[in-house]
Amino acid sequence: MTYPNTTRRHFQLTLIALPWALAANPVRAHGEQHGKASAAVVKEQKPWGIAGEPREAKRTVEIRMTDDMKLLPNHLEVREGETLRLRAVNKGKLMHEIVIGTSEELKTHADLMKKHPGMEHDEPYMAHVPPGRRGDIVWTFNRPGDFEFACLIAGHFEAGMRGTIRVKPTA
Ligand SMILES: [Cu+2]
Q: Can you give the pTM of this predicted structure?
């Protein structure tokens, strides 16, 4: 196949320009991701697991949160490595939340919330849920052990708004 001279030159210029175009795209995409940084989940390994991918959650557990300071159910059994969708359903007229952690971590955090009731916190292992609404946590329990989940809104934790999670080790 032969090209007239001008067409061939154009073709070559296109080939030369292409790598630049390809190189420019990832840069742009990266910039866009930064723009949405607040929505992105930071996957940090915690003693009680790591943020999970929604598509990997084969099981959804609904947890009802009530104004009489109860979480129902208040005990979960999980297999090590399982990704769970915890659906926190607020049945009350007060704001509630679910935070997953070690017993120690939650206690420390609850004390902090009591000292600073307006303190904002948001992590992939938490869901803050207004009255009548629901919120999801997708979490991969990749560490075996006994953990807890609780509502850390000032006074709720002390009133008993907490539950336990047992992550059973894979054989
Ligand atoms: Cu609460």
A: 0.75
